[in-house]
Amino acid sequence: MINIFEVAETNRMIEEENLDVRTITIGISLLDCMDNNVDQVCSNIYKKITTIAKDLVKTGQDIEKKYGIPIVNKRISVTPIGTIGASCCKTTDDFVKIAKTLDRCAHEVGVNFIGGYSAIVSKNMTNAEKLLIQSIPEAMKESELVCASVNVGSTKTGINMDAVKLVGEIVKETANLTKENDSIGCAKLVIFCNAPDDNPFMAGAFHGITEGDAVINVGVSGPGVMHEAIKKAKGQDFGELCETIKKTAFKITRVGQMVANEASEALGIPFGIIDLSLAPTPAIGDSIADCLQAMGLERVGAPGTTAALAILNDQVKKGGVMASSYVGGLSGAFIPVSEDQGMIDAVEAGSLTLEKLEAMTCVCSVGLDMIAIPGKTSAKTISGIIADEMAIGMINQKTTAVRVIPVIGKDVGDTVEFGGLLGYAPIMPVNTFGCDAFIDRGGRIPAPIHSFKN
Amino acid sequence: MEKGIITVVGKDSVGIIAKVCTYLAEHDVNILDISQTILDGYFNMMMIVDATHASAPFNTLTEEMKNLGDDIGVRIKLQHENIFDKMHRL
User: Fold this and answer.
1) Is residue B39 over pLDDT 80?
2) Which of B7, B35, B80 sits opposite A11 (nearest CB)?
3) pTM, 2 dp
4) Using an 8 Å Cβ cutoff, are A120 and A163 in contact?
5) ipTM of this predicted structure
6) Which residue of A184, A306, A318, A450 has the fewest C-beta atoms within 10 A of its own C-beta?
7) Same domain, A312 and A383
8) pLDDT below 50 — which residues of chain A?
9) CB-based contact, A258 to chain B, within 8 Å
10) H/E run at residue B26
11) CA of B87, closest CA in chain A: separation in Å?
């Protein structure tokens, strides 16, 4: 039987170390909502989402109450709209109409984000997908809860450099259109390489076409719990350190699995995957940077940081896979800057640079995330940053992403406040040497040699 | 069997257990086990209860136990047993 110390340990994790389930995300297929009339498509989408997801928020709240564990976000991901709008959207305005419909659905069912305003263009773009990408700035301005993503490359296809060039301009334009709110539109836009079909985390979640009609994916979290555990392993060798991280990841993931099963049963929707990501928040004690520093770094960004992150990322997976039979999504350690107080402190102390962050993305779960850069950064330079990150993903057969915010009107030395879970960030300097001629070449970077596995 | 874990944490005073037990009896919740200890200087009590035949839904009990705790100045939490089972048992 469970003893009082085990009960106290679990409750200490919840009450003092910020253990929570970060998100329950319902993936909903919109393939059966397609039509050649955009208003009909919007009406189909509205009906389908508000029917399937109507009990999501309440179910989440019931589970929170039953087990006494917070479930921070309830979200929805949908089939990439670049596909859904293929036959009905003739202009960018048509796509924006769908974005507004998604926003209305999200408000109606009470979720905090809806993802899937996306295009998968890793090899090339259809006309509709190009239109969707071009509509992103307007869609981000006109909607509140809609998240957009574009997958511009993969290990199997190489990198679509025409798309990389285009999304550089789109990031810049989104920043411009939302400049009254510190360019916040860019916080809802992610550029991917090797994007997974079943990611429950925003802003990059979409319901891939490999998925069924509806699915429950759950993202667990717990940097605070991990930090406390690592602190207890102070002075011990790497073997012991890894054991500690693994055991903790196992415990956290088991809770996520339980919540997923419960939600799946209550909603009558099949369970998909658990995403094992350690996702920080701006709250004190909920930081990945703290975990890395507890391993023995003076500050994140110091030599040793990439190795420490590699350990954390790998051990989280090793502990987590034993706790759940279906692990997917991004799974690993997120290293956003604005959402992690320890990262922000490291940037402000001069320890963490964009270049070091890029190196860290080789071993973390995703990529350059929530990084505020000077508003004057050119679209070509942003494309260059994206191309570098996509190349890391393509060559290393991992998911990488870029979510940078060129904050219009601000420069190095300023800070920007996004609010809530998105946090605040100091503007980070970007290398000012150009890459225009490189980006202007156009075309495709061929798939790497190790993609030929057949 | 629908088992729950009740934890009571706070400053020790007269009648805490009596009030919790009275509430449980009134709602047909059976107590299976009680243990208590002092953790970090605080009074910690844990009860394992069977709520299978409870006269109210589990989440109502959760809420009312929390309110009872607020009334008597301690923190009372009722949680379904599964969260501890999953975390600590293979």
Assistant:
1) no
2) B7
3) 0.93
4) no
5) 0.90
6) A450
7) yes
8) none
9) yes
10) helix B16-26
11) 5
Q: Please check whether residues A358 and A288 belong to one and the same domain.
A: yes
Nearest to A381 by CA among A356, A395, A402: A402
Question: What is the tens place of the pLDDT at every residue in A280-335?
Answer: 988 888 999 999 999 999 999 999 999 999 999 999 999 999 999 899 888 888 99
Distance CA B63, CA A66 (A): 10
Report phi then psi at A227, rounded to 5.
-60, -45
DSSP assigned state of B73: T
The amino acid sitting at A400 is: T
Question: For residue A172, is it within any domain?
Answer: yes
Residues A225 and A182 in one domain: no
Cβ pair A275, A199 in contact under 8 A? yes
Give the residue from chain A lying closest to B34, CA to CA: A4
With CB atoms and an 8 Å threshold, state whether B83 touches A251. Answer: no
Set of chain B residues whose Cβ sits within 8 Å of the Cβ of A225: none
Please tell me the distance in Å from A254's CA to the nearest CA on chain B. 6
Tell me the residues of chain A between 33 and 62 that have a Cβ less than 8 Å away from chain B.
62
Range of the domain at B52: 3-88
Q: Nearest chain A Cα to B47, which residue?
A: A4
